[in-house]
Amino acid sequence: MRDIKQRDLIARIIISAIAMVGIFILIFILFFLIKEGIPVLKSTSLKELLFGLYWYPTYSPPDFGMLPLIAGSLAVTILSSLFALPLSILVAIYLSEICPSPLRNIMKPLLEMLGFLPSVVLGFVGMVLLAPWLQNAFELVSGLNLFNASLLLGILIIPITGSLADDAISSVPSDIRDASFALGATRQETITRVVLPAALPGIMQACLLGMMRAIGETMVVLMAAGGAAIIPRSLFDPIRPLTSTIAAEMGETPIGSPHYHALFFAGLLLLLMTLALNFAAIWAEKRWRWQLH
Questions:
Q1: How do residues 57-76 score in pLDDT, each as one tens digit?
Q2: Average pLDDT over residues 179-191
Q3: Is the confidence at residue 1, as pLDDT, over 60?
Q4: What is the DSSP string of the chain?
């Protein structure tokens, strides 16, 4: 018995240490971004950074308006989520409730493998195949735009969200399903009125994690979004999200310049946005579990 307690204590210490390392790494990243990003406020105001309409960091004097970049990030995240999240939930429902077990054993690993598809491959597909088709089909100036990037991002987050939502639905006890069937409910009624409400906290977490994946994606939006720092007014306007701005400009920016610090400030904004989504996922999970109980 003493050996079991000692092993449990050692395992608890190791797990706690690993968790603390992750927290310290996150705090270090946050501190580093603040340290390198805040000096940009010596060159411009916080209001101009967040609400300025023009991003011309190499002009004299430079303009560091990040509102078009923030709008581009939010637009591509929201549009890709509107496309991908319903499909992800439908895929999860099919895999967990409808799909035969032999077929599920094949489709579930394939779905998870799609989550490892390199984003640069999707970006290349968007540039070479999807962009020319959009340009010809809709008579556009360029096929590299918000719609192109959102469609590719949606394809990228479907495997992640679908797999996590499937795990949430599959974790609902079978006794709940059996009780619903015993009361005369059909399979459709059982899925929509019993299983999905019980799995809703996990499904919401999966959706928010998928949105986090979308808002932090770099290569797809860098290659397929068009690269124009403007506020999009239609689905076919080119955009320039925060991630693609950092990736495209950091390598040629003098270290210590206002432009350099502005890019780190953009990274700080991205981190805060993803943290907000993470806290929203935790809050949603706790709130819905409390209501269910």
A1: 888 888 899 999 999 999 99
A2: 85
A3: no
A4: -HHHHHHHHHHHHHHHHHHHHHHHHHHHHHHHHHHHHGGGGGTS-HHHHHH-S-EETTSSS-EE--HHHHHHHHHHHHHHHHHHHHHHHHHHHIIIIIS-HHHHHHHHHHHHHHTT--HHHHHHHIIIIIHHHHHHHTT-S-S-SHHHHHHHHHHHHHHHHHHHHHHHHHTS-HHHHHHHHHTT--HHHHIIIIIHHHHHHHHHHHHHHHHHHHHT--HHHHHHSB---S---STTS-B--HHHHHHHHGGGSPTTSHHHHHHHHHHHHHHHHHHHHHHHHHHHHHHHHHHH-
